[in-house]
Amino acid sequence: MRRMKNEIEDEMLPNNMTESQLNDEGNGGSDSKVVLKKGPWTSAEDAILVGYVKKHGEGNWNAVQKHAGLLRCGKSCRLRWANHLRPNLKKGAFTAQEERLITELHAKMGNKWARMSAHLPGRTDNEIKNYWNTRIKRRQRAGLPLYPPEVCLQAFQESQQSQSTCGVNGGNKVHHDMLNSYEIHDAIIDSMKDNQGISPYVPEPPDISDYNNMLKGLDSSQYCNFTSSTSPNHKRLRGSTMPFLGSSGMSRNVFYPFDHIQVNACDKIAQSFGMQSPLDHGPSLHSSMCYSHSLSNGNSSTSKPTSEAVKLELPSLQYPEIDLGSWGTSPPPPLLDSVDDFIKYPTPISAMESDCSSPQNSGLLDALVYQAKTMSSSKKHNSDEISNSSTAILDHRADSSTLNMHETEWEDYADPVSPFGATSILNECPAIANANSLDEVPPDQTFNGNIVKLESADQVWTPNSENQTMSVLNITWPDILLDEDWLQQDSDNGTNQTIRTDAMSTLFGDDLATDYKHMTDGTSKSSQVWGFGSCARNHSAFCLSRV
DNA sequence: AAAGCCCACAACCGCTCCCGA
DNA sequence: ATCGGGAGCGGTTGTGGGCTT
């Protein structure tokens, strides 16, 4: 069918081309009147493109239209060449070996299709992407985990290995992957051992925009003396990637307690890097918050309207078909309500703000960007006005604003590659992270004024502001430890439990791992109880703190 | 046989980065 | 320092084929 259509177009193409070419040339090369063709490529077009590339080589794709008379935009030409016409392309189904490799690569890289394709000669990123998306759907339907356990474990071990073999100060060229966790790891452990911090879980929805605002604002390493790597990954935060996040089948009714872990470690971390404690910049800040990387399985959507809030959080083919009404034994979803409330009822903010455009029907990210704007402009308003607000949004904003101080850590540890990198928020709200409006908010200012006041009014738990300045560090927890299947298997098979506990031990120390074990097997008698909760409808972001 | 659904694939779109003027 | 074009990347959509009912 498609072939027939193309053949018909082949026959028609020369005339069209001639006419367009004449128009093009007659207008002095102006593209304004040239209607570029879309849709499937014809063999004639392919021939033209191949001939052009043979003659001129790759690149300068926009010149193809001008010089070869191909009525295709440069992007289309490049794509056609890269995906179909260039030599050495391997066509046909993926081999088992390739599939295995893709799985492993995705576990490590996430949706970095181009990078993955570099490991698969003859395969294009588009091919891999399509394969992965269909694979995800298949496995979701089959109720299979996205990654085989051995792949998860391998990635975990590799991550651990990379952390242990590469220190933060190992050189200027330390890759971001390597920078990812080493020091922060120690800091976390130390902090968790030293700080029997009181940090009950408070199910507050994260303010992603504020968080990204924080990240953006602190990009100048305000609080950080060492320079982060110049990894491309660092620059390109668009890729929403969350390796190890479970597929739909696993995430239904799953309580992922450790996806994100919050630790009162900011001071430790800051000190470990020779940084000034960011807490010096502001009043006491609590850690009772969590951050949802709302797009647990790696895709983000930036264009869906607000009315599709659910789809916003679960866009794309990789999204689970979550029963939104069932949360099993997980904590009640105030977060969800709140987030949804924010999506649905931005009115309080918009009523408060006059110089920001309302998100209204423009989608979650728009709403978040809007919220960031609002946050910025909220500085213009007196504190009473804000503190009197009872909206959850403001609560969230206040909470999340406290994270501004930790941006350095996030920024420098953010690693799209490592399963343990703090990538999720960065990657999953790229539009926000790059929103111009966010640049307007100096991070330090965020700590002052209204937001802080607001926080003091709304926070559920307040640390000792003098000596026990609490802070938050979220760690992206590998879902290998969170997988529903694993949890389910615990009752009759201790193997996975052991693996997870070992992993916990590696990451947090034996005592905490023991706590974790007790918690998961329901035998917790420890006086130290893990508090955790869900942060978003996608079930993937949870906070953990010791209470 | 027809309709509906699902799947795989190709292509497009929006965004970002890079680089040269 | 700024701007604009080129290029690349990742997400999304459109379409045709195959299968099922």
Could you describe the 3D structure shown?
By secondary structure, the chain is mostly helical. It folds into three domains: 2-85, Homeodomain-like (Arc Repressor Mutant, subunit A, Orthogonal Bundle), CATH 1.10.10; 96-142, Homeodomain-like (Arc Repressor Mutant, subunit A), CATH 1.10.10.60; 149-480 and 506-546, no CATH class. It contains 29 helices and four strands. A two-stranded antiparallel ribbon has the order 1-2. Strands 3-4 form a two-stranded antiparallel sheet. Strand 3 and strand 4 form a beta hairpin. The structure holds a DNA duplex (21 and 21 nucleotides).
- Which residues form runs of ≥5 with pLDDT under 50? 1-32, 166-547
Strand count, sense and barrel status of the largest sheet are: 2 strands, antiparallel
Rounded to an integer in angstroms, the radius of gyration calculated over CA atoms is: 25 Å
Distinct helical segment count: 29
Identify the strand order in the major beta sheet: 1-2
Mean pLDDT score, rounded?
45
Whole-number tally of structural domains: 3
| Coarse structural class | mainly alpha
Helix content: 40-55%
Which outline best applies?
globular
**What is the terminal separation in angstroms?**
64 Å
- Quantity of strands, as a count: 4
Beta-strand percentage?
under 5%
